[in-house]
């Protein structure tokens, strides 16, 4: 009995200890929360805003109560997250009280019992402030359905964001701050959730940050995506950068010393710094050009940021510094004037590349302090400078206007939506015959350029002349091209044009023109149908009769019927009397057609039930074994993953199996951003015995016996050649070799061995 009592006492004591520990932890959290909030207030009071401290305090107290008891995956109180987002909005974006309050409250309406009306009531003492605050919060809240109901929930949430962003661009800025903090704390999420968030970030948020000119945030997001999607590559680059730092610092000091002496003698106030290339940029160059880290020579750039001077324009100051540098280093290789011709996101800087004292090339960026702030912080920095007022940014206004037009007519093609809304990261400069410069996204066609000039020119574009050479309208332009558009009044937009245009304006204008053409076609078809009714003795047919005719021909929408009649598709089958005599239950027919159409349109994410039991637990990685291949999973042809590749799986709800892609596959990136709920993390079984197809690309200097040498080396490896294709031109050979291998290690070893051969310039694996 005594022993039992002792055990019971120990248990009670343990419970009290646990409670005390929890109480202590909660007290520490409260101290952390209050300290974070006070730092936010202090930072705000040191900014140029300093107007609405009381509103920020009110927003925090309201959010603190609303999120009471909620925890993040890390175990921290949830309120820590909105406070961190508000701190990014204040410190890293320089926004004011309205944005800070919206950041603090951004998850209240979605994740707590307090909805938009409650927030509006809380700030009812200032109705104007409350209306604007609630408008921004509404844009930050995930609300699917409505006009985007046919999209996946994930896609519809982003489209809702873009709609509200068009009303107030601060929605996008706060959402980027929210995403940045989520990425900074992504380590607490399970692997499939990490892949979903990385996919969204890569496909949506990084291009959005670029378009808004938020270079610092874009760079950090890129690095964080690399860290979670390709951790081995990230860690390898990180370690090698740290090892290289002493050498880079010495090289920079030696290069900068004569420039420093020269600029000081000219009385220019400036700061010169070494800007190391980001992990992501290095990785992209290594993978894109198949180079080892040791062959990446432009690991850093030199940046000169100067103080503006009275009576001297910033452009003149840039050119003055450029002249001083080229007096010292006399062999400039490249010159880019983004001061006279800013990028579409407002980026302004003068770039030049010169050869340093030890024969190495250095890129130098020259800009004023205001330019530097806007180049790093983009749109957010506009709030700091009245002369860069956001309302006066014509490129931004035009972009937002085209987004508005795009979203007025939603289509099931979600990829085309996002490709149109988010302009590609790289811009190209295209010139008119008169020498006017137009900035377009990389990948633009001659037709994109035509629509950029004017919608009427685009609608009637027949062909183009690029650098005085005739080409078709789908010709892909390159930076520096001079383009003349050839038009014809008989030419009209074609639905196929949407397959190759990339700019929001072209997409929007083509859709508008096609809609107008369809409307005219429907009117013509309706006129023909009414004439047929008139011949049958019916002058004003009722809607129910028109529906009966439409259903008879398999249409649920009368406009589809009218268009088909206009095109002549059913001209031989318009016997009205025969149709009306047909004894068919048209109500059931219409219902059946609509049901089938709904099934056809249904997205994979909506097919929630399958006959078999689910095979996949999204909470843990799925092992890719030989036995399960072709049954539980398939390797997708778009990227041809093989054992050793970093992969991700998507559940095919129809077949109840996984579609396995490489993580950096372009299609997988789109899927992660639009159907993230279907993601399953995957790992390879180490006991793989099957062989897989892989293709390597090889180039080099043509020499006698080269093909024999290549074949001999391959024969020494445990791989089979499926196809070998080599071409030569002007002394250079290039080709591809398709092999059957066991894993990435086979390919890597083979490429390393081939690269040692004299006259072979490059060899690397490619995805066909």
Any overview of this molecule?
This protein has 768 residues and is of the alpha+beta class. Helix content is 50%, strand content 15%. It contains 27 helices and 19 strands. The strands form five sheets. Strands 1-2-5-4-3 form a five-stranded mixed sheet. Strands 11-15-13-14-12 form a five-stranded mixed sheet. Strands 17-18-16-19 form a four-stranded antiparallel sheet, covered by helices on one side. Helix 6 runs antiparallel to helix 7, helix 11 runs antiparallel to helix 12 and helix 21 packs across helix 24. The longest helix has 44 residues, at 2-45. The radius of gyration is 31 Å and the shape is globular. Residues 1-10, 144-150, 386-392 and 603-612 have low confidence and may be disordered.
Write the layout of secondary structure elements.
Elements (H helix, E strand, L loop, with lengths): L1 H44 L7 H14 L13 H13 L4 H9 L2 H4 L4 H7 L4 H14 L12 H15 L2 H15 L6 H21 L3 H15 L1 H35 L4 E7 L2 H11 L10 E7 L7 H15 L5 E4 L12 E6 L5 E8 H9 L16 H15 L5 H8 L5 E5 L5 E5 L4 H8 L1 H5 L1 E6 L2 E3 L11 E5 L16 H32 L7 H10 L5 H10 L8 H6 L4 H16 L20 E3 L8 E3 L11 E6 L4 E6 L3 H9 L4 E6 L7 E10 L4 H10 L4 E10 L2 E10 L2 H12 L4 E7 L2
Helix pairs in contact: 1-2, 1-3, 2-4, 3-4, 3-9, 4-7, 6-7, 7-8, 7-9, 8-16, 9-10, 9-11, 10-11, 10-25, 11-12, 12-13, 12-14, 16-20, 20-22, 21-24
Portion in helices? 40-55%
Instruction: Record the strand order, biggest sheet.
Output: 1-2-5-4-3
The major β-sheet equals:
5 strands, mixed
Number of helical segments with 4 or more residues: 27
Class from secondary-structure proportions: alpha+beta
**Global mean pLDDT:** 82
The low-confidence parts are: 1-10, 144-150, 386-392, 603-612
Report the sheet-strand fraction.
15-25%
* Radius of gyration of CA atoms, rounded to a whole number: 31 Å
How many beta-strand elements? 19
C-alpha end-to-end distance? 77 Å
């Amino acid at each position: 009995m005594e022993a039992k009592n002792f055990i019971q006492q120990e248990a009670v004591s343990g419970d009290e200890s646990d409670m005390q520990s929890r109480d202590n932890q909660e007290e520490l959290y409260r101290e952390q929360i209050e300290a974070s909030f006070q730092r936010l207030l202090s930072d705000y009071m040191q900014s140029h805003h300093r107007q609405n401290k009381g509103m920020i305090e009110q927003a925090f107290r309201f959010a603190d109560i609303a999120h009471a008891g909620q925890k993040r995956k890390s175990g921290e109180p949830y309120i820590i997250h909105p406070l961190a987002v508000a701190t990014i909005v204040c410190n890293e974006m320089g926004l004011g009280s309205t944005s800070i309050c919206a950041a603090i409250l951004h998850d209240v309406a979605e994740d707590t019992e307090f909805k938009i009306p409650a927030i509006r009531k809380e700030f009812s003492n200032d109705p104007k402030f409350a209306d604007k605050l609630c408008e921004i919060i509404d844009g930050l809240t995930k609300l699917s359905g409505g006009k985007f109901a046919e999209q996946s929930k994930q896609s519809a949430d982003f489209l809702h964001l873009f709609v509200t962003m068009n009303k107030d661009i601060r929605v996008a800025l706060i959402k980027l701050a929210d995403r940045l903090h989520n990425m900074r704390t992504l380590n607490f999420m399970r692997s499939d959730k990490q892949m979903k968030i990385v996919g969204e970030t890569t496909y949506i948020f990084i291009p959005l940050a670029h378009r808004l000119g938020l270079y610092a945030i874009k760079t950090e997001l890129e690095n964080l995506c690399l860290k979670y999607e390709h951790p081995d590559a990230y860690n390898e680059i990180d370690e090698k950068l740290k090892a290289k730092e002493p050498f880079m610092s010495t090289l920079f000091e030696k290069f900068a010393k004569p420039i420093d002496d020269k600029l000081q003698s000219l009385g220019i106030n400036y700061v010169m710094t070494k800007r190391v290339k980001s992990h992501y940029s290095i990785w992209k160059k290594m993978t894109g050009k198949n180079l080892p880290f040791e062959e990446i020579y432009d690991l850093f750039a030199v940046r000169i940021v100067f103080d503006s001077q009275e009576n001297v324009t910033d452009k003149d100051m840039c050119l003055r510094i450029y002249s001083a540098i080229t007096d010292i280093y006399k062999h400039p290789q490249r010159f880019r004037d983004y001061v006279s011709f800013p990028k579409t996101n407002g980026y302004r800087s003068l770039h030049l590349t010169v050869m340093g004292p030890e024969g190495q090339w250095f890129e130098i960026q020259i800009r004023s302090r205001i330019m530097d702030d806007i180049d790093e912080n983009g749109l957010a920095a506009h709030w700091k400078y009245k002369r860069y007022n956001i309302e006066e940014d014509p490129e931004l206004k035009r972009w937002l206007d085209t987004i508005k037009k795009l979203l007025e007519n939603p289509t099931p093609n979600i990829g085309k939506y996002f490709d149109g809304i988010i302009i590609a990261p790289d811009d190209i400069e295209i010139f008119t015959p008169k020498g006017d410069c137009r900035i377009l996204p990389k990948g633009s066609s001659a037709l994109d350029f035509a629509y950029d000039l004017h919608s009427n020119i685009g609608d009637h574009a027949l062909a183009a002349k690029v650098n005085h050479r005739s080409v078709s309208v789908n010709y892909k332009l390159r930076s520096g091209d001079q383009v003349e558009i050839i038009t014809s009044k008989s030419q009209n937009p074609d639905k196929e044009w949407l397959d190759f245009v990339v700019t929001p304006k072209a997409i929007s204008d083509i859709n508008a023109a096609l809609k107008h053409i369809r409307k005219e076609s429907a009117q013509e078809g309706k006129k023909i149908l009414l004439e047929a009714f008139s011949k049958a003795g019916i002058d004003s047919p009722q809607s129910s009769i028109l529906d009966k005719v439409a259903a008879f021909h398999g249409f649920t929408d009368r406009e589809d019927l009218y268009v088909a009649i206009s095109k002549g598709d059913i001209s031989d089958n318009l016997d009205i009397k025969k149709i009306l005599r047909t004894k068919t239950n048209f109500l059931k027919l219409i219902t059946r057609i609509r049901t089938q159409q709904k099934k056809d349109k249904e997205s994979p994410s909506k097919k929630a039930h399958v006959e078999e039991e689910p095979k996949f637990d999204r909470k843990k990685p799925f092992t890719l074994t030989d036995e399960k291949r072709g049954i539980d999973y398939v390797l997708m042809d778009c990227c041809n993953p093989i054992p050793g590749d970093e992969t991700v799986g998507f559940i095919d709800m129809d077949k109840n199996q996984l579609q396995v892609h490489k993580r950096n596959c372009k299609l997988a990136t789109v899927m992660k951003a639009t159907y993230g709920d279907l993601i399953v993390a995957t790992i390879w079984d180490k006991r793989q015995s099957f062989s897989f197809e892989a293709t390597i690309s090889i180039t080099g200097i043509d020499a006698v016996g080269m093909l024999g040498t290549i074949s001999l080396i391959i024969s020494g490896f445990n791989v089979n050649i499926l196809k070998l294709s080599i071409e030569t031109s002007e002394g250079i050979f290039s080709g591809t070799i398709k092999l059957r291998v066991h894993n990435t290690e086979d390919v890597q070893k083979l490429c390393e061995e081939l690269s040692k051969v004299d006259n072979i310039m490059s060899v690397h694996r490619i995805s066909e």
